[in-house]
Amino acid sequence: MNGGRPALELRGLSKSFGGLDAVRDVDLKIFPGDRKAIIGPNGAGKTTLFNLISGVLPATSGQVLLFGRDVTRWPSHRRTALGMARTFQITSLFPKLTVLDNVLLAIGGLRRTKFVMWRFLSSYRDPHEKARRLLESAGYWERRDVEVRQLSHGEQRQIEIVLALASDPKILLLDEPAAGLASGESREMAAFLKRLDPDLAILLIEHDMDVVFDVVDRISVLHFGRMVEDGATSEIRSSAKVQEIYLGTG
After folding, report:
1. In three state form, how does the secondary structure of the chain look?
2. pLDDT for residue 114
3. How far is CA 167 from CA 105, 109, 170, 222, 228, in A?
4. Exposed, middle or buried, 8 (CB in 10 Å: 0-12/13-18/19+)?
5. How far apart are CA 205 and CA 198, in angstroms?
6. Banded pLDDT at 126 (limits 50, 70, 90)
7. pTM for this structure?
8. Spatial distance between the Cα atoms of 63 and 12, rounded to a whole number of angstroms
9. Are 204 and 174 a contacting pair, CB within 8 Å?
10. Under a CB-based contact definition with an 8 Å cutoff, are residues 207 and 24 in contact?
């Protein structure tokens, strides 16, 4: 699966805030179909790194390459158009709208028709067909008319990912998809993520290690802004260095 051109490549990526090096010389490659996690203790720089990858923050130095193109200075929307999507730790759904309406708004926001104010969204056939495909693949089509506020927190987190898929991404960045979930909901989230398109590259930040070990194949460990370990899930699980970082052992 790791042949050909990377979907995402980071070369010496760094970010400084005044005298603080939040991210330092990070190198990383994600190939189509990869399932990879970035882990590390609080303050390690994980969210800052995601903000650099997605264009929310400008890099101090280094490069971000998306499908071979240098997008380091590109804004977020141009990276989205090239095939990148991202979720955030805090949900941004419309709680009083239905599941279907939330998905339709996500689809509509990517089209030129979003500037047409005199037509009902329901009058466009293509968005409805796409919304149906997305919700059917996620197992939510039968619940399309349920208001989002009536869903559990775990279900809302899954719908958030469905919205990210509306742009037909080739690489998906997930910022703590299991944050705030009970153990049963975390297992459901892991199962949901494993059902996603196998050709989709997924890079996730996550503190729930059960989800990480269940979903990804490789893990990178970030500590004080640096990548200190990278390897297969089984290697990271048994790494003495990782245990020292997390538990203060050794």
Report:
1. CCCCCCCEEEEEEEEEECCEEEEEEEEEEECCCCEEEEECCCCCCHHHHHHHHHCCCCCCEEEEEECCEECCCCCHHHHHHHCEEECCCCCCCCCCCEHHHHHHHHHHCCCHHHHCCCCCHHHCHHHHHHHHHHHHHHCCHHHCCCEHHHCCHHHHHHHHHHHHHHHCCCEEEEECCCCCCCHHHHHHHHHHHHCCCCCCEEEEECCCHHHHHHHCCEEEEEECCEEEEEEEHHHHHCCHHHHHHHHCCC
2. 47
3. 12, 9, 9, 29, 33
4. buried
5. 19
6. confident
7. 0.88
8. 7
9. yes
10. no
Per-residue model confidence (pLDDT) at position 246: 75
What would be the CATH architecture of the domain defined by 8-91+169-247?
3-Layer(aba) Sandwich (3.40)
Of residues 118 and 239, which shows the higher confidence score? 239
List, for residues 177-227, the tens digit of each pLDDT value: 999 999 999 999 999 999 999 999 999 999 899 999 999 999 999 999 999
Q: Is 148 within 8 Å of 99 (Cβ atoms)?
A: yes
Amino acid at 11: R
Give the chain's length: 250
Find, among 162, 194, 160, the residue nearest to 176 by Cα: 160
Average pLDDT over residues 112-138: 70
Which strand ranges, in their side-by-side order, compose the sheet holding 61-66?
20-30, 8-17, 61-66, 69-70
- Identity of residue 23: V
Tokens, residue 88:
């955030």
**The amino acid at 148:** V
Return the structure tokens found at 242.
């990782």
